[in-house]
Write a structure and sequence with these properties.
The protein has one domain. By secondary structure, the chain is an alpha+beta fold. The termini are close together. It is 21% helix and 52% strand. This is Sporulation protein Cse60.
Amino acid sequence: MIQVKEFVDTDTSLAEKRANAFLAELSDDQVISISYGSISKTSPSGRDNQRSTILVTYKTKS
Protein backbone atom coordinates (compact mmCIF):
# COMPACT_ATOMS: atom_id res chain seq x y z
CA MET A 1 0.00 0.00 0.00
CA ILE A 2 1.23 3.51 -0.82
CA GLN A 3 0.86 6.18 1.86
CA VAL A 4 1.89 9.79 2.44
CA LYS A 5 3.06 11.57 5.57
CA GLU A 6 3.20 15.35 5.83
CA PHE A 7 5.47 17.38 8.09
CA VAL A 8 4.34 21.01 8.42
CA ASP A 9 6.04 23.54 10.62
CA THR A 10 6.91 27.21 10.88
CA ASP A 11 10.40 26.21 12.04
CA THR A 12 12.16 24.69 9.01
CA SER A 13 14.73 22.76 11.01
CA LEU A 14 12.08 21.16 13.25
CA ALA A 15 10.10 19.85 10.26
CA GLU A 16 13.34 18.57 8.77
CA LYS A 17 14.31 16.78 11.99
CA ARG A 18 10.88 15.14 12.26
CA ALA A 19 10.96 14.05 8.61
CA ASN A 20 14.47 12.63 8.96
CA ALA A 21 13.46 10.70 12.10
CA PHE A 22 10.53 9.20 10.19
CA LEU A 23 12.70 8.34 7.17
CA ALA A 24 15.21 6.58 9.44
CA GLU A 25 12.44 4.08 10.27
CA LEU A 26 11.93 3.18 6.59
CA SER A 27 14.11 1.09 4.31
CA ASP A 28 15.39 2.74 1.13
CA ASP A 29 13.10 0.67 -1.11
CA GLN A 30 10.01 1.94 0.77
CA VAL A 31 10.61 5.62 -0.11
CA ILE A 32 8.92 6.69 -3.34
CA SER A 33 9.44 10.46 -3.21
CA ILE A 34 10.13 13.41 -0.95
CA SER A 35 8.77 16.86 -1.77
CA TYR A 36 9.53 20.16 -0.06
CA GLY A 37 7.74 23.48 -0.19
CA SER A 38 8.09 26.76 1.63
CA ILE A 39 6.12 29.99 1.68
CA SER A 40 6.66 33.31 3.37
CA LYS A 41 3.67 35.37 4.41
CA THR A 42 3.66 38.85 5.91
CA SER A 43 1.38 39.36 8.91
CA PRO A 44 -0.66 42.56 9.35
CA SER A 45 2.02 43.75 11.80
CA GLY A 46 4.64 43.50 9.01
CA ARG A 47 6.40 40.43 10.41
CA ASP A 48 7.39 37.70 7.92
CA ASN A 49 6.27 34.19 8.80
CA GLN A 50 7.69 31.16 7.03
CA ARG A 51 5.86 27.87 6.73
CA SER A 52 7.60 24.76 5.42
CA THR A 53 6.10 21.47 4.35
CA ILE A 54 7.79 18.15 3.64
CA LEU A 55 5.71 15.39 2.04
CA VAL A 56 6.99 11.81 2.07
CA THR A 57 5.35 9.25 -0.22
CA TYR A 58 6.24 5.71 0.79
CA LYS A 59 5.25 2.04 0.59
CA THR A 60 4.14 0.16 3.69
CA LYS A 61 5.69 -3.25 4.29
CA SER A 62 2.39 -5.16 4.20
